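Sequence only, no structure available. Ideas?
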Amino acid sequence: MIIVLKPEVTDSQLKHLVSKIKSLGLKPMISKGIERTIIGVIGEEDILRSTPLDVFPGVEKVMSILAPYKLVSREFKHENSVVHIGKVKLGGKKIVMMAGPCSIESREMLISIARSVKRAGASVLRGGAFKPRTSPYSFQGLGEEGLKYLKEAGQKTGLPVITEIMDIRDIPLVEKYADILQIGARNMQNFNLLKEVGMSKKPVLLKRGISSTIVELLMSAEYILSNGNFNVILCERGIRTFEDQTRFTLDLSAVPVLKKLTHLPVVIDPSHAVGKWGYVPSMAKAAIASGCDGLIVEVHPKPEEAFSDGAQSLVPDNFEKMMRELKAVSKAVGRDI
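Reply:
I predicted one. Tokens follow.
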């Protein structure tokens, strides 16, 4: 249920209404927009239907949310959400580029890549310290040592940093070093992890699982928002189909669908979707044309020597060339990058 408040609602009226909602055993989620303050009420439908919340002072109207996902829906919040990552704003006119290596391999390499992607126009540095791998014998990441390198590289370049978190036990550690917590495709339905990052104050980038529907992605995002964290970014990174010429199939139709269904910003990961670096620039251009709010791309100085996902990584020169090309596409659709 959504409670839309009048523009002139007072703080005391808001507090009185919130107190009443809590006394009923319901959970109020307040969202203050440009023109209106709204309250999303979560709880038993019978209680919601039998309580005349529309008679309270300051209430303009009460509406039911029909979608199974409540807080992430356009019904709850009509205007687009903007996630603030330091000075970076994701969800506005500017398309945010996140770039860096799949795995953090060494301090020197990471700082070098951070400097090169920033020169090319990236706004966020990405790098994996904990790597979920199909094989238990593959490189699993440097752990806290890698996180320290990531934070240092971010500080030296002024770039906020994003890294994947895989385990509830690692949340306090990763929060010390990262500006954005990434939930990978394999963990999209790790509901305990989603609940825990929902209690974090850090922005969360949530990747769509390779066999998950759009509604399942939104329901996973709902877990995070329902625990108090509204700074959620959705990420499409390819789904599994019968096609075998690319690593996965990049579902670019997900962008306009998500833009219609939810107020959350949408990021595209063309690197993981196609798995081959030569296709990444084309998919990045198409992603911008489809209306995405950001891109996350893998960059490595020597892909043939990369500890993971070298085949899909752009070398710095190709990344810089792609960024120049993306500026023209962005301008054509009324955006900046």
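Residues 301 and 319 are 10 Å apart (CA to CA).
Hope that gets you unstuck.
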